Amino acid sequence: MQYVVLYSKSVLLVTLFNCHFTFILYLTGPSIYWYIRSVLTDNHRLSRKDLWHLVPMVVYVISVIPYFVLPLSEKQVLSQEIVNDPGFLSVHNFSLLGELFTNQFLYVGRPLIALGYILWSIGMFIRFLKRKDDFLVFSHQKFMIKWLFVFFGSSFVLVASHLFLMINTWQIDSNELFFTFNSLQLSSVLGLTILLVSPFFFPEVLYGMPRLPVQLSGAGNVSEIGGLMEEENAKYIPNFEADYLNKIGIKIDHAMQNEQPYLQIDLNMARFSVMVDVPFHHLSYYFREVKMQSFNDFRNDWRIIHAKKLILEGKAAGQTLEAIGLQSGFTSRISFFLAFKKAEGIAPAEFLAKRSQDSSSN
Hints:
Layout: H1 2-7, H2 11-17, H3 25-41, H4 55-63, H5 65-68, H6 72-84, H7 103-130, H8 132-135, H9 142-169, H10 175-201, E1 212-213, E2 236-237, H11 240-259, H12 269-276, H13 280-291, H14 295-312, H15 321-327, H16 333-344, H17 348-361
Antiparallel strand pairs: 1-2
Helix pairs in contact: 2-6, 3-7, 7-9, 9-10, 14-15, 14-16
């Protein structure tokens, strides 16, 4: 946004981006902190205390309300001034905060806040590595250490280049500083590219660091493995790939067999995640890497099993196959027929006919 305002030379773009979306910059730091914390603790939930991180953003939004309500014509006049001279940003108060602080302080403060959060997150990461029990989580997931180093480095360069951009805008830089700024600007583009591209090549980073509480390592039934990550000080063992993923499979099959959630027409992976008390991203990882099928196909397979059971019990004699499909959780005749043929290789009518023929032969 700042690049557009300072260098686009477009009155339309400056009018659109100036102040209107600046609040997003105040979310950069908290978002980085929440992401790192969720990766290290494997808990993405936010608490009421986390609302304090939104205070700078809320204060800013309130302070720029007078600018928000300005007529479009007046905003365009101000945008023209910015296009003619970016230094106009340092003398015109676009927010009420300008009455308390200098514009230079306000503009430089945004990346400084983000930089503070990055350093805070790095400190949290270092403390995590120093704790022996927590470090065991990395034993089968060392790629996450490399990813976090890349993430921290790229984020730092991005925020630092933005900070130098602000300094350069106020024209307090030397030629050497200007050269450094251009180098950082190039590095920031590279860093941003790495951040955006990495998940495509290393999708594991999207699933965090699943871990298995030690007290569950010997669990022999599903009832013993509920409440993942509920205890903040739980101990962890490293072999989650063998034990933890296996226990996810146990919980899933137990739920399907005993609670029959597949009969709910609105069942999706998000709802199922809550039902079996397994984080959504863990289920995503499980279905992608272990089951190697989508959740929808997995759910439909159970629905087809139920439909076949109804047919074998003779339920089709008094009702249509479409009704059988609806009773099995499908929303329409077409979705039932397509899923049945995908799973069994034949249409429901052919399956019924073959079953009737086999019964007659016997």
